Amino acid sequence: MATITLDWLHIVALLGAVQGLILAGVLATRRRNRTANRLLAVAMLAFTIHLITAVYHSAGLVEVFPHFFGAAYPLPLLYGPLIYLYALTASDRSRRLTRWDTLHFAPFALAIVAGLPIYLMSGPDKIAFFHALQSGVRPPVVRVVDPLKLLSGVTYAVMTLRVVRRHRAIIKDSYSSLEHVNLQWLVRLAAAAAVIWGLAVVFDVTPLLHGPAFRRGDDVITLAIALLVYDIGYMALRQPEIFRFVTGEWPVGGAAAARPRSATPATATVPESVVDTAPGGPRYERSGLGDREASALKAALLRLMDQDRPWQDSDLTLADLARRLSTTPHKLSEVLNSQLEQSFYDFVNGYRVRYVQRRIESEDARSLKILSLALDAGFASKSTFNDVFKKHTGQTPSDYRRSVAA
Question: Are residues 238 and 277 in the same domain?
Fold first, then answer.
């Protein structure tokens, strides 16, 4: 057997394959949110096979182990569905896979069936088939599956980014702090997948990258997948809680509503006498909330926010506030959206920002650090405080303090 030599890129790919295999094993044994973790485990296993195949071809092992040839060919049809379903189940722990979800894997199954005549070839026939591909011969199954892989990847990348975007909008209607629920790393995963598929499309449709230079495109894709595996491994070490889903996003009224908290009396409730039950009165869609009840709930909400300052609790949720108002999260959300035209996140953080502004302007707080004022207002981190403060005031906290001092 000839000596096997690998360049730096394929050593990186081989190490990425080893890490992907380890990650797949770890994720498959996680007990929390098994559905999401197992989907990601399968994705890691698929990435591992892809990276091993790149090394296999680079080392010239096709003629030594011909039966491994083509093992990774249909796998790109799995990447999109797996990441998409992972995004769905990671952002909602209550979601389970259904029989309809299996349809996402139909193209992969069809590609396997279409390729059976090739997979069942003898070793010498597979070697001859491989050399034919290298010489530019493309059988019908390849001419169909190659564009299908690109279409699948781009479509699922868009769908995954939409899921993440919708998720980020939803949690702003339920949480006042997003540090533990925004799944920022999931945004990175979705964006990375989209970039990889974008590269694949560029290398496929650019004429200059065909022929001898085409392999360079394959190397770039291999390196991108290896870097993605490394990034997931890095995040697993740096923020292991992202795979535990300790604070996963439950529907409002679910786990968030059931979370134990210190007993707090409902100091601002909506009087029963003002609940609009007239059958002909205007009502908000879905919640059945009438104008009179909405106005009363809005007044009670503003009174509670001014008197009891619940916004100083950094973990305040829509469900928490609804309990204190003796109403439902859905009705409270309707009032915030229709009466105050704000998300729960912006509404609560507006109070926090105004509190910090007042403290900065007061004589007794001018010697205090801005971060201390932010934490006292209910912000959970400095980065979030800076972003929210600038969004509400148009200035950074430091600039605002300097303008007040001037």
Answer: no
Regarding whether 287 and 213 lie in a shared domain, the answer is no
Asked if 227 and 275 sit in the same domain, the reply is no
User: What CATH code is carried by the domain that includes residue 381?
Assistant: 1.10.10.60
Domain edge (last residue) among 191, 219, 243: 243
CA dist 218 and 216 (Å) reads: 5
pLDDT in tens, 329-384: 888 989 998 889 998 999 999 999 999 999 988 877 667 888 899 999 999 888 88
**pLDDT digit string, tens, across residues 180-211:** 665 677 788 888 999 999 888 888 777 554 44
Locate 154 and state its tokens. 């781009």
* Residue of 347, 376, 346 whose CA lies nearest to 359: 376
Long-range contacts of 256-264 (CB under 8 A, 24+ apart): 256/174, 256/175, 256/317, 256/318, 256/319, 256/320, 257/317, 257/319, 257/322, 257/323, 257/329, 259/317, 261/320, 264/308, 264/310, 264/324
d(CA 194, CA 199): 9
CA-wise closest residue to 259 among 347, 172, 318: 318
Mean pLDDT over residues 219-244, rounded? 76
Tens-place pLDDT, residues 274-290: 444 444 344 444 556 77
Domain boundary among 243, 273, 291: 243
Do residues 349 and 204 share a domain?
Answer: no
Domain extent for 104: 8-243
C-alpha separations of 332 from 125, 211, 217, 301 in Å: 68, 61, 53, 9
pTM: 0.71
Amino acid at 339: Q
220 — pLDDT class (breaks 50, 70, 90): confident
Number of domains present in the structure of the chain: 2
| Residue 253 banded pLDDT, cuts 50, 70, 90 | very low
Q: Cα dihedral angle (13, 15, 19, 24), rounded to 10 degrees?
A: 50
